[in-house]
Design goal:
By secondary structure, the chain is an alpha+beta fold. Bound molecules: coenzyme A. The site of coenzyme A has 13 residues, from β2 and β5. The site of coenzyme A (COA) has 13 residues, from β2 and β5. This is Acyl-CoA thioesterase.
């Protein structure tokens, strides 16, 4: 019999949480000696996607100030398409927290899309001198 916590993990229709920010394909230079994709490469893709999402909110330059709770859930093979999805979690005076998920599919192998990593990225809006600046308020 399943426990309540096991039932909560079951998702009959898994789908990305957030908007598609970037999409790319894995190349030989992104692999380790076993032919799998480096975790650092994937973290970089997620950082770039979250950077893009937060710079739209900040209406200008941002810098990564913290990366929390990156989990790598499954390996990625060479030639996979990697889509990074982002969602704005919180906007402060100058900071923006963004969740990022990486999903992959291998078109040639006919794989279903599956989530391979997730994490939370924090950015700070900066000016042209690299100093913290306030995020402009949304005009209504
Ligand atoms: C980004 C930077 C200008 C911020 O300077 P700072 O003096 O730490 O800024 P502040 O203390 O004024 O904090 C600014 C905001 O960031 C938040 N913040 C700072 N450090 C944080 C951290 N480690 N985690 C989460 N939020 C953080 C603060 O809470 C504040 O948020 P708010 O304005 O929304 O309330 C500075 O830390 C920096 O230049 N870091 C390097 C950035 C970089 O090069 N990134 C790429 C790495 S290769």
């Amino acid at each position: 019999m399943n426990t309540e916590s096991e039932n909560l993990d079951l998702d009959p229709n898994p789908h990305p949480d957030g908007e598609l920010a970037t999409q790319t394909i894995t190349l030989p230079a992104d692999t380790n000696q076993d032919g799998e994709i480096h975790g650092g490469w994937l973290a970089c893709q997620m950082d770039m996607a979250a950077h893009l999402a937060s710079s739209k909110v900040a209406k200008g330059k941002v810098a990564t100030v913290a990366i929390d709770n990156i989990s790598f859930l499954a390996p990625i093979s060479l030639g996979s398409i990697v889509g990074c999805y982002t969602k704005i979690l919180a906007v402060g005076r100058s900071s923006i927290r963004v969740s990022a998920e990486a999903w992959v599919s291998h078109v040639v192998k006919g794989e279903e899309w599956r989530k391979v990593a997730e994490g939370v990225f924090t950015f700070v809006a900066i000016d042209s001198n690299g100093r913290t600046r306030a995020i402009p308020k949304e005009s209504s």
